[in-house]
Specification:
alpha/beta; Alpha/beta knot; methyltransferase activity
């Protein structure tokens, strides 16, 4: 497969022979950051249309147009796994958004709990990190970043068919690998169902919050080993385990699509 300089997520419909234009930010990235010229080959993708070859046919200050060539990858269904977490400090929450994207997370849901220290988040910045991670890691979709909410409101609106794994620092909780492996034996199609992972605040959940969570029929408490992990580490560990056992961890990256510099 013909290699490309980079990959870009675009919301426009993609089809052979069509032309798409980039916004000012995308044009700046092509012209001033990557320093590309007409004829450069770009991978254009979205979850509806898959990935297509885009060839720059015009580039200037604040604008860029691309001619769409052949389709490089068909659309593909991805695992439906959410990450629900209490916001943490800026550099670490940026890391979390990036890694959640790389690990195939379909949605990021920030929540405020009683002991959450961080009171505000920059949703646009997290969305930008999620988009960049999708462009880098060969995904065809971008992790959705939703508005922050409270734990109480989240529980009130939670879809009952979405199972929730609550990472428990202390108390009774079987190892995540054991829980998911046993479940896979009982339900071979479990990975095709909607799931979510909940990571608590750095100060831990309040007793009342944990009691409320444990009363919910779709909640399972899980353990991540004998060490107390930081929130961002716990999220990466839990998502990695879920993908390895129930998700698409057994698949390999698409051959020949890794972006390289030069045309």
């Amino acid at each position: 497969m013909e290699r490309v300089v980079t990959r870009l997520y675009v919301k426009d419909s993609l089809s052979e022979g069509a032309t798409v234009g980039l916004d000012a930010a995308g044009a700046h990235y092509m012209r001033s950051v990557l320093r590309l010229n007409s004829g450069a080959r770009i991978g254009l993708f979205n979850e509806r249309d898959g990935e297509w070859l885009g060839i720059i046919d015009g580039l200037g200050k604040g604008w860029c147009s691309l001619q769409i060539g052949e389709q490089r990858r068909l659309p593909a269904q991805e695992p439906d796994i959410w990450l629900v977490f209490a916001p943490i400090k800026r550099s670490r929450i940026d890391f979390l958004a990036e890694k959640a994207g790389e690990l195939g997370c379909s949605r990021i849901v920030p929540i405020f709990t009683r002991y959450t220290d961080v009171k505000r988040i920059n949703r646009d910045r997290l969305a930008a990190h999620a988009r960049e991670s999708a462009e880098q890691c060969e995904r065809l979709s971008v992790t959705e970043v939703v508005e922050a909410t409270t734990l109480d409101k989240l529980i009130e609106s939670w879809p009952q068919d979405r199972r929730l794994l609550v990472c428990a620092e202390f108390g009774d909780a079987a190892p995540i690998a054991q829980i998911l492996t046993d479940l896979l034996v009982e339900e071979p199609e479990a990975g095709q169902q909607p799931w979510a992972v909940l990571i608590g605040p750095e100060g831990g959940f309040a007793k009342e919050e944990l009691e409320a969570l444990h009363r919910l029929p779709y909640v399972t408490s899980i353990g991540l080993g004998p060490r107390v992990l930081r929130a961002d580490t716990a999220a990466v560990a839990a998502l990695s385990c879920w993908q390895a056992i129930l998700g698409d961890g057994g698949m390999r990256p698409p051959k020949g699509t890794t972006p390289v510099r030069g045309t």
